Fold:
Amino acid sequence: MGDDRRWDDTLFAGAAPYYARGRLPYAPGLAEVLARALRLDGTGRLLDVGCGPGTLALELADRFAETVGLDADADMVAEAARAADRAGLAGRTRWVHARAEQLPLGLGAFDVVAFAQSFHWMDRDPVAATVRGMLRPGGALVHLSDWKDEPRPVGPLPHPPVPQDGIDALVRRHLGPVRRAGRGLLPNGTPGGESLVYARAGLLGPERLVVPGGRTLERDADEVVSGVLSLSSSAPHLFGARLPLFEGELRALLRETSPSGRFSVRQPGSEAVLWRRPEE
Structure:
């Protein structure tokens, strides 16, 4: 998606089957921290905008009467619906295939609206203004991301770390030196400054919550490959007919790094920034 914010429906094309297996989980205890801060009691409604395969929505669904997940990628929505069914949550969740820019879509009012590592893909000012109008007075918007300033623990790991530098070099060799995103390029990465956007929308905040990570997780080669293919910058469609070649080279790199096929990663912490609609 370029600066003109025209939606690119290939942004995550083909990535949905890899997402749940490849992405690292949120920090342990995140749901409990949010439940305390938002006073969740099993009532009310949650809207997860850019829900992907339902990762956050399903983690919070038992703390609301109804959870609605919305995503612009049809395959992500289908994955979320299947995951909800497996978790026994189909009766209290709803999944909508639509862009955030199409809201409100008659979805009604919500007590909490969440953007979990998704807001940067949207036309942010109009989306924030629309979402403010969908929040009940006193309702909260939750902006969730990895905790980027988390102190990194030191010490030996039981398995080799994922060779991220080598993976990045391999992706560049196949896709070029500038980060890919759907049909376009992101030479400067995704936009920041979301606090200014939320403030312009008339929301009150921020209230920052940090949940430390730091646990050492074990990942196998299939999980590492899935993580790479779950990214917009290395989504399967970008490789075209060369996808099997890329995956073969990626697996060879992983075997060279860890003959056992096991890797150790540090789980990232989670940072949740809360913004509230004023009481009226």
About this structure: The longest helix spans residues 243-257. The two ends are 37 Å apart (CA to CA).
